[in-house]
Every structure is written in C-alpha cells, then in structure tokens.
Amino acid sequence: MLQACLNGSRAAEEHPALPLSPERLAEDAADVAALGVTSVHIHPRDVIGAPTLAGPEIATTIATVRAAVPGIEISISTNVPGNRATLIASWAPLAAGRPDIASVHVAEPGWRELAQALHRVNVGVELVVEVPEELGELPAGTTRITVTATQDNAETLLRQVEPLGLPVLLHGRDGDAWPVFTYAATLEHQVRMGLEDTLRMPDGRRARNNAELIAMARRNQRSRAPS
Q1: Taking the mean position of all CA atoms in its chain, how far away is CA 116?
Q2: 2-125+182-223: CATH homologous superfamily?
Q3: In this predicted model, what pLDDT tens digit does every residue of 145-179 receive, in sequence order?
Q4: Extents of the domains making up the chain
C-alpha cells in the first residue's frame, strides 16, 4: 500500500501548496489517487486552520474528500488538544462523514481509551509507534501499526512490531523521509509519502505539491518491486 499524507500539522506558511480546507484536501486526494494511492492520511482543520476532531468539521472534511475519491481509505490523526474521546463519540451518527481509520500514538497518556473510543464508533485503529514500547494486548479494532522511524532506529522498531502479525506502515519525516521510504519499500512494507512527512524531493529541491512527491514515491516503489 502507498498512502499519501497530505498535510499533517504543518502551518500554511510552510508550503504554498499545503492543503488545509476540505476542498483543497479533496483536490489533492484526487490527484494522488490517480497516481495509484489507495489511502490518504489527513489532519482535518477548523475554519481558522487549527487541527480538530469536532464532529461537524470531521463530517464536512471526510464527506468532501470521500466524494472526490470514493473507495479510497481515509485515515485521520487524533493528535489534537482537548477531550478527544468525547469528540470522537460525536462521530457515531456521521455515516459518510466518518473516517475509515484513525491514528493513535501509543506514547501518549490514555492511548488505550482513545483506541476504545474509536472502536465504539466503528472506526479502525492505526497504532503509531515512534519509540520502543511494550504494547501488550492490542486494543480491539487495531488494523495496522504505523512506525515513525529514523534511519537509525527503523530496524529496532520493526523487530518489535513485526511479530504482532498486523500490516506495518513504515515512514520517516523530513531528512529521514526518503531514506526510510526506500528502506520500507525494499522490505515490502506499506509506505507513505506527502507534505506531512517532507517538503522536499530526494535531490533536496522543494516539491511542488503532494502529487510530485507521490509520483516520485511510485517510481521508487516500483524500482524495488521483486521481478
């Protein structure tokens, strides 16, 4: 699987092509889906551009993106301030405005309760591992482990999560984004790329947009596919 991480928690001034509104996220999602992406990961924003989990904003964002890319998995981040479990509970009646899966950082206090809140509203759980953690029994509804790694610790983190038997998405950020992507593609793990992870192409120049990053990622991925 190749996932596109379209915006993250980056501020608008970091890149002129950063998609923040539902409409812009939908446009970028359509562009990367045309390049073979089967999942998009987004950080929905409120009207002033702050990350949010509030039901109305989630419903609008997800429904807008889903209309542009029907059939594509839509993943969102839960890494925002506030009473996240209560906000997630408000998603229960959203239907088409509910994400397919949401990420939960296992290093955060209360991550198990957050995963339970997602499961109760029928949203899949994507556990994010950034440092060695003893996960124990995985929460109900866990469908994927996302490993956020550096070049130095990727192998260590994979040794921890691979025995759990779930699909693993391995990615890096900023200077580690492309080296970790290449490593993950070589191992045939799920991968992701986009403006959340890096603003730059492998040669160091600034990427024009998410589509340019994904096009390069697809070429990289195909070059490492077994013959």
Answers
A1: 19
A2: Aldolase class I (3.20.20.70)
A3: 999 999 999 999 999 999 999 999 999 999 999 99
A4: 2-125+182-223
* Token reading at 87: 């906000």
Query: How far is the C-alpha of 97 from the C-alpha of 116, rounded, in Å?
Result: 19
Rounded alpha-carbon distances, angstroms, from residue 41 to 7, 151, 153, 223, 224: 8, 22, 23, 24, 23
Helices (H), the chain: 22-33, 55-68, 84-89, 111-120, 154-161, 177-187, 210-223
Cβ distance 26 to 64 under 8 Å? yes
- Against a cut of 0.70, is the pTM above it? yes
Per-residue pLDDT tens digits for 59-77: 999 999 999 999 999 999 9
Return the DSSP state at 200: B
